[in-house]
Amino acid sequence: MRCAGGNGRARWPIARNCWRAKTWPKCAACWPGCRPPAMTGCVSMAEVEVSCLIPSAGSGDRLGLGCKGFLELAGRPLLRWLADKGRRVADEVVVAVPADRLDEANALLPDCRVIVGGETRHDSVALLARAARGDWLLLQDAARPFSSIALCAAVLARARETGCAGAFVDPEVPVARLRDGKVAAVLLRHEAGVFQSPQAFSRETMRRLLAHAQERGYRPQSTLQLAIDAGIEVAAVAGEKHNIKLTTPIDWRVATLLEEYLT
């Protein structure tokens, strides 16, 4: 058995409970923090086509309840809900968390690969993309646990056609572009879309986006902003009204009414 990490010394035995009965593709010698495969979701490197990436390394200051991924709805942490959805559309799930919660995340997500995230969301996305093994990257958001599996599949399907796709929701009303406290332009509702997750990228597209960001010292709020800034075509998929972003205490109160959309 040869470790896919590159040094040829496989430290862990065959993962007997692995859902695909394959060997754990990394070893502790070449993958820092690698764990034995006491997990149900490990796959060989050759079989990873789609990687689901979940950045959850932020402090959640605006919500005021700590790192959002570890908050519980319907009796389970948000990361667990998102990981379960990710397993249904991807071959692996890779999660970025704060360094001081790494052990907790490993215990919570034994079927995922967990890494330490960066200082910003963009930094975490870059780390996740480099850690992922898939040719296609489905980017989720710990602050949007209500996105459906159908939406994830639709975004991924469009990305396969174009290289880059994301979910956008109809604003339902006209949107104003503001400049210096004044209305500079108006976008009609059919001309505008509110960014949502998931987003999906080919590995090559993500590589180009990260290189573009590094060259410009640019750390966008949304990875799709990088694509637009770089002149890369982004396919738009109709989002979901219930797929809200958990940012403020009011959002959290609304979230308790949307628990049926967690599965």
UniProtKB/TrEMBL annotation:
Molecular-function GO terms, alphabetical: cytidylyltransferase activity
Organism whose genome encodes this protein: Thermomonas aquatica
Recorded superkingdom: Bacteria
Cellular component terms (Gene Ontology): cytosol
InterPro entries listed in its UniProt record: IspD/TarI, Nucleotide-diphossugar_trans
Keywords attached to this entry: Nucleotidyltransferase, Transferase
Gene3D superfamilies membership: Spore Coat Polysaccharide Biosynthesis Protein SpsA, Chain A
Name of the molecule in the record: 2-C-methyl-D-erythritol 4-phosphate cytidylyltransferase
